[in-house]
Amino acid sequence: MNTPQPPQLRVLAGMHEVTPAAWNRLAGNQPFLSHAFLHALEASGCVGDETGWLPQHLTLWEGERLVAALPLYAKNHSYGEYVFDWAWAEAYQRNGLTYYPKLLSAIPFTPVTGPRLLAENDVHRALLAHAAIEHAQSIGASSFHCLFPDPQDSSVLQNAGLMIRRGVQFHWLNQNFTSFDAYLAAMSHDKRKKIKQERRRVSEAGISFRQLTGNDIKAEDWAFFTGCYDNTYLQHRSTPYLNVDFFQRVGDTLPDNVLMIVASQAGHDIAAALNFHDDTTLYGRYWGTHAYSPALHFETCYYQAIEFCIARGIRLFEGGAQGEHKLARGFLPMETTSAHWLAHPRFAQAVETFLEREALGVAHYIGELNEHSPFKNTCAPNTHDDISGS
């Protein structure tokens, strides 16, 4: 009787080395984990050696069948991650050590919680976690990091020896609201008044909105959106991570997962926001503008998206990274996690001590935020419901 052979590990230099069907069978329906999204990043040049994101995707195979996969990149910087470890890199440098390259499992430029250890069972998930550490050791990387894993993967990574870091995002929860007014009715008087004032200011400025989905988004819309996106980055003296080729590729390959909100004034488009969605969740991602108008950002990025969620019955709106200003607009604090393994024992111990203190601070911060909930006590959404679909 033949003894079953363990899965064979292969490191892929890009998504072109695996078929979409094989990858998507494991990735599920979250758009950011799809073969199309990750391949678009690589094919457009937004991800690659020249950008400091070198694909090193870990895969496990039983013969020619893909049974597990981990999106993975070798990084020579910490840009585009939204879990900040610059202080760790500086500490390495002060002590004559090299922090880069490091290995990172994440969706580039996308702080969205979801599966990372893509597999059918926990045995293969554990194999992937250990394989990532071994791969980091084999290439001389200082560390392995996994950003925004879902709770199941976070537990597997912790059992494999990674340290867990806590963070905070702000999410909007749909409590079966029948309209935007019904949503506002659940809020306290002062917060409801503030939102109405912001929406009125936008309306009185003569700004109107189009919600474009799927194939309704044309090439000229992608060009306009990219110009807005680039302009906003430049105004903040930063370099855009993404380009029009990427946006057009995801528009072509993921039309059922894309929502573009375009703002117009006096017959001219002036701003746009790009969101992704599946059946349960809307993900607020990128925005930009060519003109300033009071409250335009809040209307384009938040209120229009909330109206879309209510109309579609979408239960969760992830508004992106950070932003206490979202609390007053109905977004509640949610804990996120990341997982970290450092090869250097002394630094690993120091980071572990830091993360223990930081976790206490995060828990206290979330508690304080919840004390200032924008909702009436009797109507506050239940933040403990697991509605993320992850």
TrEMBL record:
<dbReference type="InterPro" id="IPR007434">
    <property type="entry name" value="FemAB-like"/>
</dbReference>
<dbReference type="InterPro" id="IPR016181">
    <property type="entry name" value="Acyl_CoA_acyltransferase"/>
</dbReference>
<dbReference type="Pfam" id="PF04339">
    <property type="entry name" value="FemAB_like"/>
</dbReference>
<protein>
    <recommendedName>
        <fullName>N-acetyltransferase</fullName>
    </recommendedName>
</protein>
